[in-house]
Structure formats: C-alpha cells, structure tokens
Amino acid sequence: MKIIDKIEKIKKEKKAVILAHNYQRPEIQDIADYIGDSIELSRKAKEEKKAEIIVFAAVDFMAESAAILNPKKRVLLPSLGARCPMAQMLTTDEIKRYKAKYPGAPVVLYVNTLASSKAQCDICCTSANAVEVVNSFDSNTILFGPDRNLADYVSEITGKKLITIPEWGFCPTHVLFQPEDVLVLKMKYPDAVVMVHPECSSEMRKVADFVGSTSKMCKYAKNTDSKTIIVGTERGLLHRLKKENPEKVFLMAYDDAICPNMKLLTLEKIYSSLKNEHYEIKIPKRVAKKARKALERMFKLNN
Ligand code: 13P
Ligand code: SF4
To answer: Exposure check for the chain: N or C terminus, fewer CB within 10 A?
Structure first.
C-alpha cells in the first residue's frame, strides 16, 4: 500500500485530522485536511469538534497552541525536532525582567513563542493580526516579543513604541532575504510585484508591494493583476501559490529561504506519528490556563 493510502486509512481508524502549515512539504500539504497560516490553524484546532486526534504538521509552538485551545483532544507533533528557533529566543526570565523595567506596559507576544512565555503575556498575536492587537491598547508603549522585524513593522503602522523582548529576536529564515536580490529580479521582470512576510527586514519591506502573513500573501497573489510575483517568505508557500494560481509565475526572492524545522516532517513521520500516537503535546495545566487566556483574548478581538 502506498504511504498516502496508509495515512488515509489510519486517519479514519483513529478519527484523526491533519492540519498543515503553509510551509510544509508539498506532499504533506496535499494530504492535509486543512492548510493555513498560524492563526487559521489555531482557529481550526479550536473549532475542531469531531476528531479525537489532531496531527499538527508544523512546528512546536503551533502544536502547543492547538493543545492549549483543545485540552480534551490529543495533539501530536510528528517530530520532536520541529522546533521554531525564534520561539526558543524568548525566555520567561527575560519577560519578567522587561515587565519589571516597564511596569504597567501591556505585553503582546507573537504566537511564535513557547506556552510558558504565552502564560506571561496579556495577549497573543500573529503576523495576520498584530496591528489590530497592538491598537487595542490605549498605552503608547508596548512590550512585544520575540520578533524584532514584526515589532518594527507594527510600530511603523500604529505609531506606537514597541519594545522588543529580546531586543534582537529574529527568524533565521526570513533574515536571509536581501533587497539587492529583489532589485536584480525586478531588472529582469519589471512588471513583477513583490510580497514579503513581516518577519523580513525593514529594507525588504521597503521594496515590497505587499506585506502580510502567509495566507494573506495567498489572497494577495490571487487578487493582483500582475502575472509575475516575487515571494519573500519560506519556499514551502510556493506549492500552494502555484496550485491556486496556475497561470501566474512565482519567483523566490532568495531561492534557499528554507525553514529546516518545518521541513523535518515527512509523510513517513506523519504515518509513524499516527500509528504510534507520538509525540503528544502536554502542557502543564497551570501554564495552559494562563496561555489559553492570552490566545482567547486574541480570538475575541480578531474573529
Ligand atoms: P504565518 O502566521 O504567516 O503563517 O507565519 C508563521 C511563521 O512561522 C512565519 O515564519
Ligand atoms: Fe520559526 Fe522562522 Fe521557521 Fe517560521 S520560518 S517556523 S518563524 S524559524
């Protein structure tokens, strides 16, 4: 039996669903029940009523969010190595240190954080709703972690002062993009439009026609009249972009922008995860309760 048939069969037997992030390998996106950006996947996990098991084809913080929002379901991450390095950059000690330094300042954390960090914040945000979340506070000074580039982007739009925790937080994949590479491509394809993820540098944002989350980029690609689109995010998004827009041409702003953590997952690992029911995400109740509050607050604001 082919691996995709084996996955389909075991999925039915175990009443499981597979949620996959837009950066997953093409063959994983193709067998997933649902594909999306981080807020869409969290929302889907929250609304999931029928399944007993959720296999999260993504990285640790996304699977953790699903487990926090769905305490009665078993959430499986098919590889223990699939950890987002940006999420690891923020420690609870660092959050406490900043809170003590800026008493009363609201703490907004990107969902790309571990559950223990989420438990320390007022509200979570994703790249799709960060502006709205920050604008929901009257305060002009906001503590924001861990992505420095996303913080700068939100600060530019809202006019608020975002203090980044840690000061230097970044995504190792998105910082690979350089505006020079875009300008070279634009010389060859002058009619091309450029879309980038807010985890890219401010220099990259300056050469972009559109800045948004992975799913917002998919919408932009569909709606733009331009036939050639330069992409400033992880390579995995190309699969969905090409599938949804077969008549358009997509060019990576930097060919090797690959998130090795997202790419750890394979069809074999998904099958093994379903068969052996590993690796189950377990969050201590006390932490989960606080983190859930921060996530729910985000959903209330951004339904
Ligand atoms: P999105 O929410 O835009 O899918 O981004 C998640 C992520 O990890 C980007 O690097
Ligand atoms: Fe984390 Fe960057 Fe990978 Fe997204 S692309 S999961 S932020 S390392």
So the answer is: C
> Are residues 275 and 295 both part of a single domain?
no
Cβ atoms of residues 144 and 151 within 8 Å: yes
Give the structural domain span for 201: 174-252
**234 CB near ligand 2 (under 6 Å):** yes
Probe residue for ligand 2, chosen from 23, 117, 171, 238 as the CB with the greatest number of ligand atoms within 8 Å: 171
Ligand 1 centre to CA of 38 (Å) is 6
Decide if 45 contacts 51 (C-beta within 8 A): no
Tell whether 217 is covered by a domain.
yes
Average pLDDT for residues 246-257, to the nearest whole number? 98
Helix pair 3-13, 267-276: axis angle to 10 deg: 30
Q: Are residues 190 and 225 in the same domain?
A: yes
Residue 17: in which H helix or E strand, if any?
A: strand 16-21
- For 127-180, the pLDDT digits (tens) are 999 999 999 999 999 999 999 999 999 999 999 999 999 999 999 999 999 999
> Looking at the structure, do residues 199 and 64 belong to the same domain, yes or no?
no
Please state, as a whole number, how many other Cβ atoms lie within 10 Å of the Cβ of residue 48.
Answer: 19
Residue type for position 142: I
Query: Which residue has the least CA distance to atom 6 on ligand 2?
Result: 84
Residue 257 belongs to some domain of the structure: no
Least distant ligand from the CA of 147: 2
Q: How far is the CA of 22 from the centre of ligand 2 (A)?
A: 11
101 and 164 assigned to the same domain? yes
In this predicted structure, the answer to whether residue 303 has a pLDDT above a threshold of 80 is no
pTM reported for the whole predicted model: 0.97
Q: Return the best residue to mutate from 24, 65, 90, 126 for the ligand 1 pocket (most ligand atoms within 8 A of CB).
A: 126
Average pLDDT, the chain: 97
Check residue 219 and give its pLDDT: 98
